[in-house]
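Please discuss these two lines.
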Amino acid sequence: MFLQRILPSLATLVLLAACAISPQQVAIDPASDETFPSADRSGIVVNLSVTDTRSESAFGTLGGTYDESATLTASNDIAADLRALLRGKLEDAGYTVSESGADFTMAVQLSELRYARESGTMSSEVQVVAELALRISDSRGNLERSYRSASNQTRVTRPSAEDNKMFLEEALNSSVDRLIRDNRVHTFLRR
């Protein structure tokens, strides 16, 4: 009799536990094959700062019964890695990146890197949005630009951590590519 009463409750608990999704941490590695144009003259110094100004540290949630606790977060400092990438790109183009004596100040903000997963009866749709804000200034003025990229991915199965990493990097790297190849940025740096 006791077993008959407890068995349905136990089955319900097992079913709910099966629907729970563990949080995921992924390392986001910014990358770009784009290049800044070569500096017109040697000795041009750029003060580069990159900050993560997203309103939340989590990219989003993974869905499931306990959606609020199934978060997707970064396991690395994305702003530091993005700064290292942009620094290398500027130095490859002949600029000197330094904190003092700068001809230009280049401030980049990671203002958005968002992940949303909607699950239907037959598939999961993942929407990712990335946005970078740029401000370049010198003694003669400034230039402000933003680079927003979005993508939708559909999967028959629940996306793995590696899938989610790839989705986030594709959106972020698309925004980075657009920043590096922006002709208005090139013109500003060459004036």
